[in-house]
Give the backbone structure.
Amino acid sequence: MNFRDRCGVCKDKAGMLVTMLRAAGFESYAAMTMAGSRIEDIPADQFNHSITVVKLSDGSYKLLDPTWVPFVRELWSSAEQQQNYLLGLPEGADLMKTPVSSPENHYFNLNLQTELLSNGDLSGKLIVDAEGQSDAAIRRAFTSRPVNTWEPHLRRQLKQLNPKAQIKSMNYGDPYDYSDPIKITMTFVIPEYAVKIDGKLYINPLGTQNLFSSANYHRYFNTNIKSRKYAFRDRCSRLVQIQETLKLPDNAVIVSKTENMQGHSQAADYNLSYNTKHQALILTQKLSFKKRVYNANDWPGYREAVKAQKEYEKEPVIINLK
């Protein structure tokens, strides 16, 4: 019935995958988990989601989730890392926890080549590519929406920063092609992006702003909270890498910019900097958020990483025009 009707809830999809794997010669069983929450080690009905496991040649079991991964470039959703599960094995099994997925498996890369004119106009090109759950977050804007909303959604990424933004071209490939990580390219012009006051330009480089925010959930955390009593969650571990080369006018001299920042902790690493080269300002940001579920004592390290990125987002670069 599930195969004929092409529909079902999680247990139907998990059961169908078990059937198909067994037909292909694999040893496979159903398993249970509690999506979005932990399971206490007591005999009680604490499960809300059914998944599938397959036995590998070395005797270990690999988790598969046919409900959540049809639109993701991985066979197990890493949005469910550090989550309890119970294998449905004939001999029985104890409560287990899904492993942490490396941030490198869920990278978000933003590369910008921009040029600032002395009148404040900004033009340039941006390239976004992402993998894992970062890929899924960006791709979901396409696969969960009608086709006629795709291009307006991309335009909105810049127009929400500045309504004057003009998109000259965009290329996002085929969002339903999962053979490679998603890649988006856009060229643009933003008239009067930099504010000009008394012969100085004040600009917040695009790389410091929250572009493609669905893949950067950490930026929504309230960093005014100095300490936590309880554990907290992100959507997934992730690696964020941003680079912008901002070409400046020939008569430009940088007066003020945010100082370089870096830090390391068990929760997150960050390295953010501005450098200059050949009349260009080069912004580099690299942040690594190491898991999905954090303990309360992870908060200071996580908070410092997010605070640093928000500082770069808030503070403009000040440029004097000679």
Observations:
- The CA atoms of residues 217 and 288 lie 13 Å apart.
